[in-house]
Specification:
The complex is a heterodimer of chains A (334) and B (82). With 334 residues, chain A is mainly beta. Chain A is built from no helices and 26 strands. The radius of gyration of chain B is 18 Å and the shape is elongated. Classes of the chains: A mainly beta (334), B alpha+beta (82).
Chain lengths: 334, 82
């Protein structure tokens, strides 16, 4: 599948900024114009907590961001989808089928074919994957009640009939990876590898072809001291099944985002804890078609997301460890 | 308490947070319990170098290069031509 950057002067990052306290947040959107990053105002939303978790772009005037608004004092999360038309952000009216609803991922095939995923809180011990589709006019909500309990963390659309939504399902200690595929007609659950003694939690999905899709996340398990620990994982879809692919990160680690450019050009970012200097976090991993290798980045922090449009143009964003606040990394070839 | 630690815990266990709201669940308590594992689970990361042409560079923050404490970027996006 051909992939190309809109241009080297057009990239977006979204997240959240403090809103009166560090646990109350307002949406944050930043735009790269080729020279600098600028904060772009987003629509005012009357809620103590608002954050944007995902962003997708078709061109410079067709950009969508998804997240949620919430109030810590109630179970009243609301889905948030915003659209950039080239000059300003506008909030779209979106469904909220559950008691509380949250969006974690968004992907666009065209302006009339957009998917957003997340989860809806129904009641105690009942949280369902949330799948929304936008046809340019109205949103459709898909019934996921057969899954009983689950959460979707990422969605990737390669084509109208080839969409992946990943996350996890089940209650501790029986959490399992959740991989759903849309074939243009219906969603179906696809078998995913398991590991004994812990749970696979999927955080991100990206691909370049029907038989070349990547998923990343972590294997979560409780250590001897009873604490939850994470170990980075990656998986590849070859058109017929998902297979684990060794990452090479040991210790406390996870991969939170993956961006596939070509079969031999895939990036993944996250967090790794390096011993004996536990403050060092440098996880910008690259797949060359054979193996994952870490490409050193100049900052210490947790990388939450990566997007790449070509071999010589990738962006990674996160929040700093050594220096608090956001940080943005750009990969380029001299 | 570190915001990014809280954020990760929040994203990966928000279901449990919701469930436990009625049981007076405390985010601070969760962080308090979780943060030590960052220190106790440390292990060796193999030193690796990649045959990648190019390099990562830090881009100045919108406010002129000084990061704003508490801000977090959760996603980045580029146009994809299908």
């Amino acid at each position: 599948m051909p992939r190309a950057a809109l241009s080297s002067t057009d990239a977006w990052a979204v997240g959240a900024e403090p809103n009166s306290s560090q646990f109350l947040t307002a949406p944050l959107a930043e735009h790269w114009d080729g020279t600098q990053l600028s904060i772009i105002p987003t629509p005012s939303i009357s809620a103590p907590t608002v954050q944007l978790n995902s962003i997708t772009a078709l061109n410079s005037s067709e950009v969508w961001a998804a997240g949620f608004s919430d109030n810590p004092n109630c179970l009243c999360g609301q889905t948030v989808v915003e659209h950039w038309n080239g000059s300003s952000w506008t909030r779209l009216t979106t469904p909220n089928p559950g008691v509380a609803d949250y969006l974690t991922g968004v992907t666009a095939i065209s302006a009339t074919d957009i998917w957003a995923v997340g989860y809806e809180w129904i009641s105690n011990f009942t949280e369902l994957p949330l799948i929304l589709h936008y046809n340019g006019t109205t949103w459709k909500t898909f019934n996921t009640s057969q899954l009983q309990f689950g959460l979707l963390s990422s969605v990737f659309a390669r084509a109208t009939n080839d969409v992946w939504a990943l996350g996890w399902t089940g209650l501790e200690p029986n959490v399992k990876a959740l991989a759903l595929h849309w074939n243009g007609t219906a969603w179906s659950r696809v078998a995913f590898p398991t590991e004994s003694g812990g749970s696979i939690v999927l955080k991100s999905v990206s691909g370049v072809a029907t038989n070349d899709v990547w998923a990343v996340g972590s294997y979560q398990f409780f250590g001897l001291n009873g604490n939850l620990s994470l170990s980075a994982r990656s998986y590849h879809w070859n058109g017929s099944r998902w297979t684990p692919v060794t990452v090479g990160l040991s210790g406390y680690s996870f991969l939170g985002s993956v961006a596939a450019i070509a079969t031999d050009d895939v990036w993944a970012v996250g967090e790794g804890l390096v011993f004996p200097q536990p403050n060092e976090f440098q996880v910008t991993y690259h797949w060359d078609g054979t193996k994952w290798s870490n490409v050193t980045n100049p900052e210490q922090g947790v990388l939450n997301s990566i997007s790449a449009s070509s071999t010589s143009d990738a962006w990674a964003v996160g929040d700093g460890f050594a220096t608090p606040g956001t940080y943005t990394l750009h990969f380029s070839v001299p | 308490m570190r915001y990014e630690v809280w954020k990760w815990i929040k994203l990966t266990s928000q279901a449990l947070i919701k469930i436990n709201k009625t049981k007076k669940f405390s985010p601070k308590q969760t962080i308090h319990l979780a943060f030590p594992l960052l220190l106790t689970c440390a292990a060796t990361l193999p030193a690796q170098s990649a045959p990648v042409t190019g390099s990562w560079k830090l881009v100045s923050s919108p406010n002129g290069g000084t990061q704003t404490a508490g801000n977090v970027l959760l996603a980045t996006g580029r146009a994809i031509v299908h």
